[in-house]
Specification:
Blueprint: H1 3-31, H2 37-59, E1 79-85, H3 90-101, E2 108-113, H4 118-127, E3 130-133, H5 140-150, E4 156-159, E5 165-166, H6 170-174, E6 183-187, E7 191-192, E8 200-202, E9 208-210, H7 213-224, E10 236-239, H8 240-245, H9 256-266, E11 270-273, E12 279-281, H10 287-307, H11 318-336, H12 338-350, H13 359-379, H14 386-402, H15 405-408, H16 428-450, H17 453-456, H18 459-483
Parallel strand pairs: 1-2, 1-4, 2-3, 6-11, 7-12
Antiparallel strand pairs: 4-10, 5-12, 6-10, 8-9
Amino acid sequence: MTETTHIFKRTAIVFFVLLSIAYITWRICFTMNPAQPVASFLFFFADVVTCFSSILFVISFWRKPKPPVASIHSRQFSVDVFVPTLNEDCTMLETTLRACMNMEYPHQTWLLDDGRRPEMKMLSERLGVGYIAREENSGAKAGNLNNAMRHTQGELMAVFDADFRPEKDFLSRLVGYFHDGKVGVVQVPQTYYNTDSFQHRRLSGHEIYSDQDTFMHLVLPARNNWNAAYWIGTNALLRREAIGMAGGFPTDCVTEDVLASMYIHGLGWKSLYIDAPLASGRAPVNISEYYIQRQRWAKGAFQIMRSHNPLFQKGLTLMQRLFYFSSVSHFFEGSIKMVYYLFPAFFFLFGLVPVYPYPPVITGMLFYVGITRIILELITRGRTNLILDDVYSVIRSFICLTAMPALVFNRNIRFRVTPKDGRKADIRQGITGPVIIFGFNLAAIIDSIINPYLVASSGILGWICFGWCAYMGGIAFTACSYAIPDFKLRITK
């Protein structure tokens, strides 16, 4: 990045933050509708949450990127490679284990079998890898890893999910970063070999969209500049000492990766994110697998927010607190977006007006949305896809709502392994939210067509709500079509 580009980006960030603060101040002072206080508060609260999240996102790009440099010192580390399994397919595991064995750097590969399956022990013996099982499954994946730590001694530990295949140079490329004695985690992105999965969409040419692209290639690299990138469960190399000082892998959360990272950051360890495709895995192939995976992530985030709130975690820097809080509250934000998806339709169907219906108010809000979207495109260098981001946001919004009990009720959450058998999708999982959003927006469109006076008499507010209903109806319809395996509507950029 050139100095001129960096200065331009910082200027855009400052303008975005100031504009967002001014917008929220203007909203609370001049746009609330006293005639409908509940609807007005909900819409304002959604704006506050969205603005806060957006501000943290753009601030993460403030520092100029400084790519980490691996040391070329000759000192050699002892490395254990862990592949936890519960019920995954034997053929899949054999492929993963062979890829782990073929890595160039000296290491010992271990199969951690929480299913206590005889065929897994036979597979380990046939391949010549270590085999570790335990009598009970307490703590799920985290408990499995803790048990493996008690039976091994490697200074570094690589962790791969059962479906991820590391490249030959995974260890040789990453071990050098640990010559810095304060580095506790080195993480690489999750990339996928099945780009025809549910979370992927083929765009024009050879370009492929994944709903994790923004997180993997924008969010984590930016947070890397603040020592706030974290372990994401697989494709990582961890220092045993760092995990040991944190008390092992935490078993009181179904997203043990984020919580473990927060603990070791609180103890002063460094994390590094290397944006290089050094391991590839299997993405959820249908809506059922996607639903289970994303719901587990949301529940884990809510568990952390409830019991281990990053804002009060000892040892973290201010920016680490804010970025971790942004990560766990992201799933709360997902359900908040239901307000934006439904309120314009509710305007026509139920007469809800969550803002003061004065033309300058409506145009002011529209101006803010348009300007901030342009700024975000400039800051991210156009690496986002507005339409597909909205499609998957609609799908995830209801998933986030179903995970909300993990935030409200203090109870144990069962760890559900993402299925990897590719069985026929149960479209009831994941399609409910898009159907509801599509149904309300379609009803609003029909109502306004049958009664055109509804739009005309409301002035600019009516036209904007009608346009938004048409847009959201199309987005929700596309989301529904993605959830049905035999009917997939492709969107080209």
